[in-house]
Each structure stands twice: as structure tokens, then as C-alpha cells.
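Incident review: delayed structure delivery

Summary: a single-chain prediction request sat in the queue longer than the usual turnaround. Root cause was a stuck worker, restarted by the on-call engineer. No data loss occurred. The affected request and its eventual output are reproduced below so the record is complete for anyone auditing the incident later.

Affected input:
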Amino acid sequence: MSRFILPVSVFGTVFGGAVLLKNHVTGGPCPSKANIKGKTVVITGANTGIGKETARELAKRGGRVIMGCRDMGKCEEAAKEIRGKTLNPHVYACHLDLASMKSIREFAEQVKQKEQRVDILINNAGVMRCPAWKTEDGFDMQFGVNHLGHFLLTNLLLEKLRDSAPSRVINMASLAHVVGQIDFDDLNWEKRKFNTKQAYCQSKLANVMFTRELARRLEGTGVTVNAVHPGVVATELGRHTGLHQSQFSTSVLSPFFSLLVKGPELGAQPSVYLAVAEELEGTTGRYYDVMTEKEPAPQALDEEANQRLWEASARLVGLQEEGSEQAAEAAVPPGGQSETPRTNPAQTEGPSPEQRPENTAVDVVAL
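Output delivered after worker restart:
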């Protein structure tokens, strides 16, 4: 009997330590009990994972929730489920494909026409480490969806956000931004050999840089902008990482991995916190690791680079720079095509809308 005591003790210690570590990294539930009745929330990628749980929590708090999703079948199903569980009838499914500038403009126009206000915009959707796919407009899929899509959407809704002030924009970032680098000469990976991990990290760094530059531009308007890394969350986002594709990782790593990650419900709490916490009123341009403010990577603190990224992004998506006498160039990705989809058979196109998995947010692993 005594020979089992040591192994059992070691196992108990390891297991207990893992549980404590998991409780620490999850950050727990949102500490704010604030109600948001009368406020309108727009959430991208809201039919599954963190986005769905964020929508559910904000609907539970009385918000009018607009769910922007590519897969309308799943979105309608999720909206119906949330309405049933929260008894909030004001939860709506709307079509939004962040890999299409046309779709983004149509979604934004629909929101502007139908909604009296937009109090909270949560840029939650994203793709992670996918193959060398291109968006409908020829952008690298990760840079196009994670950064350019949300850059355009946010700018198109700025007037509503200003009119609804005090209002908030929350950008889903990642710890991966710390190793990201912005290659201004090749934002869409047309000159370099494609590296999916570096492409993801570049897109996440762009999220933080966009957050800081937008916050600077909106200073004094009552619209605040913050970025958040939600922690280590098990969602569909990591489908392309290959983490559990080997026998070893499935049988040996998965049990330990499950002890250290949190589910989508807890993963949504940082976004909810930034959206509703009364103590964050007026806080802007910050980066949060779960629910704790942290300083972002040094490359995100470069104001000149942040402005340069803004200007490059505005040109790519066809936005007119405020105060300029001429419109910015139409959405022309490298290669000279217009906003219409590319048809060059030599390029690596993304999967069709039916084949491409629904955009979901947040890291399955903190890269």
C-alpha cells in the first residue's frame, strides 16, 4: 500500500497545481455587474466560441445585440438560442463576411440605416494560421480578415459611435503580437515566402497598432478604443495549428492542455469587462491581458509606424482620409486589381464561403 503513496501524492500535487494555474490564467468572471439596457452592441464572428458567449452575456445584461456572421444558418441558430436563454428578444443575426469589402460595406450600411445608435463595437472575429488563402479582394486572409476587415468596419461605423458617445470599441488582439512585425513593403505576402505563423502575428500586431492610432484620432470624442488578449481559450480558431493531429499530442498533450485552457464562456469575460465596466469609462488606447492592463510590445508603441499602418490600410480598403481633398485610392491590393474578386488562377484563392470555416476569435494557444 505504501508504494502507492508517493505516486498518488505526486499526481495530486501536479493536478492541484494545474487547477490553480488554470484558475489564475482564466481571470475568472467579469467583476462588473453593470446593466446595458438601452445600449446597442455590434459583435463580429458571434455565432460560435467567444463571440457567441460575449453576445449571450451582453444580451443577458439587457443589450440590443447585432451579431455579424458569415454563416447565416449558424448565426440564426445562435441568435435564437441566445434569445431563448436570456429572454431578451433584441438579438439579431446579420450577414457579414470580413473577407469581403463589399459585404463589410453592406453590413455597415444596414447597421447605419436600421440602428439608432451603436454604443459598443466588439471586433471579435478572426482566423489563425490558415494556409496561404486570399480574401475576395486579394488580401492575405489573416491580414485581410483580422485587421483590414475590422479597420474598414470600424471606420464605417465611426459616425454612429460618435453620435452614441460615450461609446466603446474593443479589438480582439493576442499575446502573439509581441513577436509580430509589420512588413510595409509586403503586407499581403506577395514577395516573401508565406509563413502562416508570421502572417498571424503580423495581423495581431496590426490590431494593437490600429487600436492605439484610432484612440489617438478619437481623443476627446467620447469614443474609447482598447485591445484585449483573452487568454488561452479552446475555440475553433486553432483548427489549422495541427496541435492535435498527431497520436502523441492527442493522447499525451491533450489532457494537460485541457487543464490549462478555459472554455469560451470564461474566454468571453475580458471582452465583456471592457464593454461594460463602469470604471473603464474614458480609458482608451490600452492593451489588456485578460482583465489586467499591460504595456504592449515595443513595436506597437511606435506612433509613426502606427500612423503609417493607418494610411496604408486606408488606401487598401478605399477609405478617404479625413481632411484630404482627394479620395484615397480605391481598394487596390498589391497587383493592381480593383475591389472585384481576383480571377488569376495562379494565386492561392481562399476556400469558397461554403467551405471556409466560420470566423471565430481568440487563440487556442498563446503563441
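Verification: The first strand starts at residue 40 and ends at 44.
Action items: add queue-age alerting; document worker restart procedure.
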